Amino acid sequence: MPLLPGLGTAYNCQLKEMPWCFSADIGQFCKNYFIFEKPLKEDTSFSWLNVVCNYKNRQEKTMKIGDIFNFTNNRIRVLMFDDNEVFYQTIDDDDIFVYAKYKTISYYWSPRDFFNKNSEFIKSMELTEKELEIHRPDLPLRLNCFSGLFWTNKSFENDYDFNNFINSAGISKEKLIGLNNSKVVIVPTSQQQSSKKPILLQNEKGYFSGEELMNQCFRIQREYVNFEKSYFSRFRLIPNGREEKRLSGIGIYRLGIKGNLPSYYLGGEISMGELESDKSFIVEK
């Protein structure tokens, strides 16, 4: 299998990271990729499939906000991500967001590992200043996720009362993460996992401390909490009956935008998306 002139052939060779080489299969120069250094064992043969897979892995590790992929038979752009999850929106053939004119959006979500294995990188494209201002990918994707307690219908009379409540679960106010934004929309969640009326929080200081944010979130969520049921539940029909999952804990999770402001929903110790794929939360009959 010939490579570029002067690079020899690709039989029984070991790969070495170098500035570039050419793959006839993917039909393009691969910057920061590989050339061949020394023979491997005689029973080892080179495959361009390995090159393509390794090249894809490199793209995954260097994912950037705004990158365009083919994913689930859709052309999409990454809005925000971390090691665990990816938030994205669909785009048209001109790379314009399909819902660009919408001021209220719930982002599409995928576990990062699933996205990596099932997406095809197309190209990089930075978000505009306006898009960055609206979507705020710099804000945390999740915050203040804890086990050992649940949302309560109790009304806290003051900060001291609130701190005593979280301290009972081993959570100090120093562990609470705030938001560096003057406005945020919080969406409470029923214990059957339906979204309730969103609430706008505003702060003249320009940011919310962790203690202030969580105190407000407990206030927003409390009317949807049954004190006899300290968990969220999800039911679905299965071939031999009905399956139930239960999720306790507390957490704040990125949802999308509401009125072009960042929105978050209130949930348990893991996100509702993660709950769907985690069998450990199934209630044994």
Q: How would you sum up the global shape?
A: globular
Describe the sheet with the most strands: 6 strands, mixed
How big a fraction of the residues is strand? Answer: 25-35%
Low-confidence stretches: 1-46
Q: What Rg, in angstroms, do the CA atoms define?
A: 24 Å
Distance between the termini: 59 Å
Helix content: 10-25%
Order of helices and strands: EEEEHEEEEEHEHEHEEHEEEEH
Number of domains: 3
Q: Specify the number of helices.
A: 6
User: What is the number of E strands?
Assistant: 17
Based on secondary structure, the structural category is: alpha+beta
Describe the protein in words.
The chain is of the alpha+beta class and 285 residues long. The protein has three domains: 13-61, no CATH class; 68-130, no CATH class; 142-281, no CATH class. It has helices at 48-61, 112-118, 129-135, 159-167, 210-221, 272-277; strands at 13-17, 20-23, 28-31, 34-39, 68-71, 74-81, 85-90, 105-106, 108-111, 119-123, 142-146, 183-187, 199-202, 232-238, 241-247, 250-258, 261-267. The strands form five sheets. Strands 8, 11, 12, 13, 16 and 17 form a six-stranded mixed β-sheet that branches. It has a five-stranded antiparallel β-sheet with strand order 9-7-6-5-10. The longest helix has 14 residues, at 48-61. The termini are far apart. The relative contact order is 0.12. Residues 1-46 have low confidence and may be disordered.
